[in-house]
Design goal:
heterodimer; A: 167 residues; alpha+beta; Ribosomal Protein L22, Chain A; two-stranded antiparallel sheet; 5 helices; B: 312 residues; Nuclear Transport Factor 2, Chain: A; 9 helices; elongated
Chain lengths: 167, 312
């Protein structure tokens, strides 16, 4: 199905009430914008740039980016932040981070591109969708693995090999 | 004999067809051809979706249609009106100050309030009119029935049983009860009633046409309830499940008397101005400060936090 709005439906899932001893479940907000007049490949670069950042940082980075998609993406993030505070019971609007962010292909319009000698090509007017998932809390810290660590791991793997049928 | 005849007829037909030109084939009466013959052209491998459509201005076509006299699609001018319930509470009951607080102190207070329903003349008239239409109406039974309706309606709200809720609650009260609650879990329980419910006030009104009577009865009830609202993720938003609260409420129950299928349904609540403030929600809410022009500074000392507007 081409018009499936599965991403928006994720916002309608209701969890049962938590027991008092359970850890507090972080709020998840799914937001998207459809049929943006931009290329999905160009949008991808921006989407992966902000993945994993806190929302304030993401908005700051997009504000000073020169691409056309950055302006649209910033609007989407601000909309999502507002919706989180209003509809999804998020307490602090800065306490959000971008958990998932990616772009997808929208529905293209086709036009003729005229070439010489009566030849023609089909020109695609590209559109893309942009999806973002905000989660409450501080962004998870990714442990950076240094090359020395990787080398140590490799040597460890070699040392822990067992040789069968040996003396 | 049939065979040679047929052959000559076919030959004749062929002769006539060959004589006729392309244009005359369609007009020939005896052997009519198709009116539109496709002209053989070079095969198009790709036909773009109406490229010319974009250039036609949208306003242009509308003006053209109006000038030509074509009546387009009529936009909805109607607004739906609900006849099964009134739009509000007519002549609302003004509860006396200190209603629940003084009742335990003075016996006279209790007696006074018990007699008030008999004193107010309009309420008596209204009750008499209700008894005209519904002969089984009794003030004492009605108060208990009102409480039952209240409890059942709130139980239906927790399960979000739309049909049952619509039968117990009027169309005016339904959005008030369910606004914003669709994706939330509500846990409500009625523990006990501290005082027996009493009918305090009654009014009968005519809507639109004379004789189209609606009856509204106010019932006062003092009870103990627990309420806990959880948001979409199961986190507690308001109240608590273990801590019960004593609640004094004035419910307005309404019925369309003329309608034989009319039922007594919860129409609304009357919140007195002296009612105690509700519990705050378990969340900090940001109130936006004043918009400053560049160069202005925020005056923290003289700035007053704006109070939220009363809901009811």
């Amino acid at each position: 199905s081409l018009e499936s709005k599965a991403w928006e439906k994720k916002n309608l899932k209701v969890y049962p009430p938590q027991l008092p001893d359970e850890p507090r479940r972080p709020a998840e907000i799914h937001h998207s914008r459809r049929q943006i007049k931009y290329s999905k490949d160009k949008m991808w670069y921006l989407a992966k740039m902000i993945q994993g950042l806190s929302i304030d940082e993401a908005i700051a980075q997009l504000e000073f980016n020169d691409k056309k998609g950055a302006k649209i993406m910033k609007e989407v993030l601000l909309e999502a932040q507002e919706k989180a505070v209003k509809n999804h019971n998020v307490e602090y609007k800065s306490n959000l981070y971008v958990a998932e962010s990616y772009s997808g292909k929208g529905r293209y319009l086709k036009r003729i591109r005229y070439h010489g000698r009566g030849m023609f090509g089909i020109m695609d007017k590209v559109y893309c969708h942009y999806f973002v998932k905000l989660v409450e809390g501080s962004p998870p810290k990714t442990v950076e693995k240094t090359s020395f660590d990787q080398a140590k791991q490799y040597v460890q793997n070699l040392k822990s090999r067992t040789i069968i049928h040996s003396l | 004999m049939a065979m040679p005849m047929r052959r000559t007829l076919v030959a004749l037909h062929r002769a006539t067809c060959r004589r006729l030109t392309n244009a005359e084939v369609s007009l020939d009466v005896r052997h009519p051809g198709p009116l539109f013959l496709p002209v053989r052209t070079k095969k198009r491998y790709f036909i773009p979706p109406a490229v010319g459509m974009k250039t036609k201005m949208e306003g242009f076509t509308e003006a053209k249609a109006r000038a030509a006299g074509i009546v387009g699609k009529q936009e909805n001018i109607e607004r739906p009106i609900n006849i099964s319930c009134t739009a509000g509470v007519f002549d609302p009951y003004v509860p006396p100050e200190g209603d629940a607080r003084l009742s335990t102190l003075s016996k006279e207070g209790l007696k006074q309030r018990a007699e008030q329903i008999r004193q107010s003349a309009t309420s008596q008239l209204a009750i008499r009119k209700i008894k005209e239409h519904d002969s089984l109406f009794k003030t004492r039974d009605f108060a208990e029935r009102a409480q039952e309706i209240f409890v059942e309606a709130h139980n239906a709200l927790t399960q979000f049983n739309k049909e049952k809720l619509h039968s117990l609650v009027t169309e005016r009260c339904y959005p008030e009860m369910t606004r914003g609650n669709r994706y939330k879990t509500i846990r409500w329980s009625f523990i006990e009633s501290l005082e027996p419910p009493r009918v305090v006030h009654a009014r009968c009104t005519d809507m639109v046409a004379k004789g189209n009577v609606y009856g509204q009865v106010t019932v006062r009830m003092h009870s103990r309830q627990t309420l806990a609202i959880y948001d979409r993720f199961g986190r507690l938003m308001l109240g608590s499940e273990e801590q019960p609260k004593d609640v004094l409420e004035y419910l307005v129950i309404e019925r369309h008397l003329v309608n034989p299928y009319g039922r007594w349904r919860l129409h609304g609540k009357i919140v007195p101005s002296w009612a105690p403030a509700k519990d705050p929600i378990i969340k900090t809410v940001m109130i936006l400060g004043p918009k400053l022009r560049p160069g202005e500074e925020f005056d923290a000392l003289n700035h007053e936090v704006p109070k939220p507007a009363a809901v009811q």
